[in-house]
Amino acid sequence: MTSRPMPATPQEQADIETLSAMMGGNLDEHHALLLLRKHNNNLEKAASALLEGDTGADDPMYADLPGLEPINAPVIGPGPRTPPREPEGGVIDLTKDDDDELARALRASLFDQGTTHFGPSDRAPNPSWAMVPSNVEANAPSGMSQDDQAMSQAIEASLSYNIPEDIYHELPLEERVREGDTPVALRPTLPGEAYAALILHSLYFVPQFKHTIAQWLPLPEPGTYEMEPPRSGPAHQAWTILEMYTNMDLARMSELNVDASLRAFSTEPWGGPAERPGDVSARFYGRLVYAIENVLKYNNINNPERKHRRLMELQYGEHGAEPDDLSTHNLSVVRVNVGSSPDSNDLLSALAAEFAPPDTLKNKAPMRRHVIFEPSEVIAFELVRDSAPPSYDAAIGRKNERSTFRYPKSLYLDQFMRDSYELANQKRMTQRGLLDGIKDLEARKQKLLHFNDKDTLADLQSCLYYYENVADSNGDPKRAEEIKANKEKISQVIEKLQEDVKSIDIAIEQARGEAQTMLDCPELQQHRYDLRAVLIHDGLYGRSHLYSYVKQKGKWWKTVDYVVTEVRHPSPVSVSEETVLTDPTGLHLGAGPYFLIYSRALSPEEEDAHVDWPVDIKNNVKYNNKTFFSHLPPDVVARVVDPNSPPSSPIIPSTPSEYTISSNTVEPPESRDELMDTTD
């Protein structure tokens, strides 16, 4: 007659869960144990055999044994008032009349891995116990979690994507009427240029950038007194943005073609899903910043002194460098490595890791670190991710899921600036001390609650459950007194342990709160920047797989290709801002938010201030609106509302701008050949 195998050890149980996860949770634990031992507990060999079809079920040694629950599994729920089945190995006699009974019981609960626990189980629920597991959709394949479904759907969508099908479809004119104050979308003809269109679109909603562009005018050509729109160079690039932004403000069309500006910048296409959109976006943004900073200083009719205005380039250098060694650099895009750990998975922590890594804070002279010498009015961040998939945790039998990267609606740059670096560094050292103290408290809590990889509190509660519900005096007064005394002693130990743990938790919470707010002092809150735009990638390729969030007059708007919608949070008690700050799109494909644009905080009046665009460009846009209305069906025209005043110039151009009606409807624009009235 065959005998039943020994119960699984804790390591074997962890390996069993890993193998079961590989099979979608459908592998019998008994067979998995046999398979492990068949390969001398080598998990890799057992996994390979499992994938080749060997489930261990055909082992003749145990062929006649039923697939029972492991004999050392906890009892589920309160059991009968009888002692449990004796486990193999050491036997604990909790009913024996012995003066050292309590000590032996507690010792056994801490050391003997084969002891059966009484009372409710502390084992994690098995998804197979439910009719429909809680983390699996009803129509999903068996054993597939929501995370796995998301990954599967994303991969399926990626494989089915057809680049030739992602072509520019021009909407009928009646579907291109702008509704109220809904922002205008910018559309490129080529899908590979959608990323650049989103950057141009996003910068329109940065107040400092928009107002600066509106106030800029190029210098007249040498030897002339008349100004003509520039046709080449950085001035031409800036001029295309000026025209485009005037249209975005005043045009009554819901979307505009942006090819003119993209041609001016010689925009490189996004190569495909293998290329990070953030990388090509950073290069495009850098070229745009170079052009704008150049014309603002050297080709600006409103800046004859050629004063340098740090609109989009911050200046940085080394902290602690000698004056003779001091060298500074300009930077338009700050690259931020998105951390894989929760402690560094937010913008401020990632920046702190770059500017002040922990190894420079341990009571020794700080190394030379980069600090900001002069901040810019606008600052952009490229979020760079590790493209590796989530790791697999064998101990729990599932992937370590990614978490969304956090970025605040407002941030202060003071802690990274040269003038306040010393104060910030002192604060960080204090913060590091608090964090080290938290680690010590957590280690102390771990020692209180665990011993020899066992849950001390759970084992004490198991003992208490035994004396409260299982132990029977059988009418023996002395035995009844011992049971009562042991129950009181265990209760006192549990109560003391819980009080100590609660005290530690309170201390940890206080220290963590103090550490989190350590840098939140008035001295380090002089340079506040507010979030203006977020660009997000869902992980796939195409014009509809990149989108943006922008803020206009207190509302957040989402733009996907030509569709612009107001962001509304599904919960009535939450604001749309929460959706913008926590969007999980692209999480399972190593994607998500990839470009953030902040600018200096302004008052609501400054943010919403009226923009005074050049008169002639305004007149062209207003004329184009009338031309657009003339091509609409009468019933659509009757519903159109145009808040713009009539053109102020008596000279009406004969053709509209390239930013409104399509080329197959009207002739190309001639507005660039006309003189601009700069006196109005």
Q: Which fold name fills CATH's third level, the topology of the largest domain?
A: Cathepsin B, Chain A
User: Structural class from helices and strands?
Assistant: alpha+beta
Helix content range: 25-40%
Residue runs with pLDDT of under 50 for 5 or more positions:
58-99, 108-140, 392-399, 660-680
Overall geometry comes to elongated
List keywords for this structure.
680 residues; alpha+beta; Cathepsin B, Chain A; 3 domains; three-stranded antiparallel beta sheet; 17 strands; elongated; disordered C terminus
Explain this structure.
Residues 184-601 form the USP domain. By secondary structure, this protein is of the alpha+beta class. It folds into 3 domains: 1-73, no CATH class; 78-120 and 423-526, no CATH class; 180-417 and 527-607, Cysteine proteinases (Cathepsin B, Chain A, Alpha-Beta Complex). The chain has helices at 10-22, 29-38, 43-51, 101-111, 146-160, 194-203, 207-215, 233-250, 259-264, 277-298, 347-355, 421-449, 456-470, 477-516, 576-582, 604-607, 615-630, 634-637; strands spanning 185-187, 255-257, 314-319, 328-331, 333-337, 369-374, 378-384, 392-393, 398-399, 410-412, 450-451, 454-455, 528-537, 546-552, 555-560, 563-566, 592-600. The strands form 5 sheets. Strands 5, 7, 10, 13, 14, 15, 16 and 17 form an 8-stranded mixed sheet that branches. It has a 3-stranded antiparallel sheet with strand order 4-3-6, with no helix packed on it. A two-stranded parallel sheet has the order 1-2. A hairpin with a 4-residue loop joins β8 and β9. α1 (10-22) packs across α2, α8 (233-250) packs across α10 (277-298) and α12 runs antiparallel to α14. The longest helix has 40 residues, at 477-516.
